[in-house]
Design a protein that fits this description.
alpha/beta; 398 residues; 44% helix; 5-stranded parallel beta sheet; Rossmann fold; 8-stranded mixed beta sheet
Length: 398
């Protein structure tokens, strides 16, 4: 049997030497490198890819939790075991959320240390042997579409939910709907799906996250759309990081043709990660001055971030000129053409939300349903390379 290569990460030279001495008695283990900081650990892990990393939790600069997140995301084959003098449940939970596979409390014996490393490594090898990916990346052309606005109450969740259902029905392909409004997400309520596990539960198994595990956390809507719900409590949002979002999107790309993401009305790091990784961003606005001001500010931020113009589509929800602002003035203010108009239809939208049945399935004859169905068809057409340059979406109300 080849020896298990181990990296020791601790800011104390004495501690590293003691651990190295303890591991020297095991025939199955070999210390191949050491790091004195979280930053150094991330760099060395990427270069050397050790089998197991023993990571101290408390270090100056980048601590063990942050270093574990970075390594788990970028070097998933390396197994991280956290070491700490603190054994409280809160520390253990943070370590596991970051992607650690086990947690050791100092001081520990040589036998305890060696047995933990060997057992964790062998169990991980057995788990990996059993994994059969649902689809390879070569089998699917995946697209991420994020529904965003810098103003709340503009109908993001309504559009995201109905768009996902519409695209699943029109494309006949796998569609995932991710609720990244982490504090107050309503996708599960909008679609009336039973929530057992959410994204906050998923990140607790971040170290083991793959396509197979992801499917265990996706809730199936009767339309065929798979939903990853937001946390059930607002305070759980703080445990979900940009690294988590990046990996979740990456894994969903392996199995889904379309990934629709509903977001909060902010440029939080998790939302920014979603926007960065999106193929298309639908920025939602309504024709009232506060919303127009905020959407204009949001577009300015995206311009600063150097997002390509073709990546961003402006969707005007509850579209009507009867309240004094004309479409041409709206476009002039934003310096952006309206890509799609979704008409006001409160009876249809509210009834749909209260009953948990998407109106793109139950009220297909309404103008609001037709607008979102056409939106989905156009996005599918763009993905498949057949963009309609005449933009039929604008003809609905133009």
């Amino acid at each position: 049997m080849e020896k298990i290569n181990v990296m020791i990460v601790d800011d104390s030279y004495e501690t590293r030497s003691n651990i190295k001495q303890l591991l020297s008695f095991s025939r199955k283990l070999k210390v191949t490198t050491e790091a004195a900081s979280g930053e150094e650990a991330v760099i060395l892990a990427g270069e050397l890819r050790p089998d197991v990393i023993l990571m101290d939790i408390n270090m100056p600069g980048m601590d063990g939790i942050k270093a574990t997140e970075e390594i788990t995301l970028n070097v998933p084959d390396s197994i991280v075991i956290i070491m700490s003098v603190q054994g409280e449940t809160e520390y253990v939970r943070k370590a596991m959320t970051a992607g650690a596979r086990d947690y050791l409390c100092k001081p520990f014996s040589g036998d305890e240390l060696s047995e933990t490393i060997i057992n964790v490594y062998e169990n991980e090898m057995k788990r990996r042997e059993k994994i059969t990916p649902l689809l390879t990346k070569d089998e699917i052309r995946s697209r991420v579409i994020t529904i965003f606005s810098t103003k709340g109450g503009v109908g993001k969740t309504t559009i995201a939910s109905n768009l996902a259902v519409s695209m699943a029905r029109s494309s006949k392909k796998r569609v995932a709907l991710v609720d990244l409004d982490l504090q107050f997400g309503d996708v599960a309520i909008m679609l009336n799906v039973s929530v057992k596990n959410t994204i906050s539960d998923l990140v607790k198994e971040f170290g083991q996250l793959d396509s197979s595990l992801m499917e265990d956390y996706m809730v199936t809507h009767f339309s065929g759309v798979k939903v990853l719900p937001a946390p059930v409590k607002p305070e759980y949002a703080e445990y979900i990081t940009a690294n988590h979002v990046e990996k979740i999107i990456s894994i969903l790309r392996e199995s889904y043709s379309y990934i629709i993401i509903d977001t909060s009305a902010s440029f939080h790091e998790t939302v920014l990660t979603s926007l960065d990784l999106s193929d298309k961003i639908l920025i939602i606005s309504t024709l009232d001055l506060p919303t127009i001001k905020n959407v204009k500010a949001g577009l300015d931020v995206m311009d600063t971030l150097n997002y390509p113009q073709e990546k961003i589509h402006v969707v005007l929800n509850k579209a009507s000129e009867q309240f004094g602002i004309r479409y041409r003035d709206f476009e002039s203010t934003l310096h952006k053409q309206i890509w799609s108009y979704v008409p006001e239809d409160s009876p249809t939208v509210v009834t749909s939300a209260n009953k948990g049945f998407p109106f793109v399935m139950t009220r297909t004859e309404t103008k609001v349903a037709k607008a979102i169905i056409d939106m989905g068809i156009e996005l599918v057409r763009e993905t498949e390379g057949g963009v309609n340059k005449k933009s039929p979406l604008r003809k609905l109300f133009g």
